[in-house]
Amino acid sequence: MTRPLPRIAVTAGEPAGIGPDLCVMLAHQPLDAELVVVANTEMLQARAKSLNLTLNTVAYDANINQAHTGNGYLTVLDQAINAPVVAGQLNTSNSDYVLETLKKATLGCIKGEFNAMVTAPVHKGIINDAGIAFSGHTEFLAELTNTAQVVMMLVAGNQSDSMRVALATTHLALKDVPRAITRKSLETTIRILHYDLVNKFGIQNPRILVAGLNPHAGEDGYLGREEIEVINPVLTNLREEGMNLIGALPADTLFAKHHLKNADAVLAMYHDQGLPVLKHASFGEGVNVTLGLPIIRTSVDHGTALNLAGTGNIEIGSLLAAIQLAIQLSNNKPLLGL
Question: Does the domain at residues 1-147+293-338 carry the CATH identifier 3.40.309.10?
Fold first, then answer.
């Protein structure tokens, strides 16, 4: 049986940001997939005009298979928008629109209509200013899919040997990190990371490097006891189940080439422990992956860049990498009949 092209939903994100620009640019990028952009059609056409790019939109029909050829056509699942969009100017009136695009893409993935979803950046502040409590894509998608805990992982591109960095904690003040890392939460994070490396990335017996929390991984308790009391006991227990876990390692040497050479992923304890290294290696082409969801979701590694919206002075590399990784993960799924 020939494997059909995966159908990928792409949400255009904050309409005043560069998400619509990136989606317009996608119309000129051939990909081995069916792409469905979830956005307001008129807004996309207006942005294409401002960028002086050709854009022909086709209304999405779930019963029609349409390969994305990159010849200027874009399949669009239209979403009504509340207020006219001005590139670079946020408007609280359009916050509901942003969330509705995410809901459509997510529910389409849950139903099996889409194989994966890829998200352009949203602006958390303007959504909250609209009176809607919103802490980010990750938490919003977890709630929509009734997922108790998810894990953020960034990937340096979409190749099989790419650096992968997952986080034990995400957007927390540094002072709050130590008490957020408990034996229970860390064990759950590692189980999610290991499971998705096996079942979504197709890596058997993944080798995971785990960073310590403190400088020099605590230096036997002289620089902190989290490694002794929390991290190492969890690693010991999970190794007894057969997981290939290395650590806790000092974060300042963990990313040396000889450590990374045979590693499938790194687990950092907090945001700025792991992500600066990855972004140094791949900024503009990194991909954010949400692990633990019952669906495949990837995203760009950058923000809305309001000052660049509508200017044409942007790169599409991160969105292309996110789509390519979504395609790869979709194709890793077993196909009935093969």
Answer: no
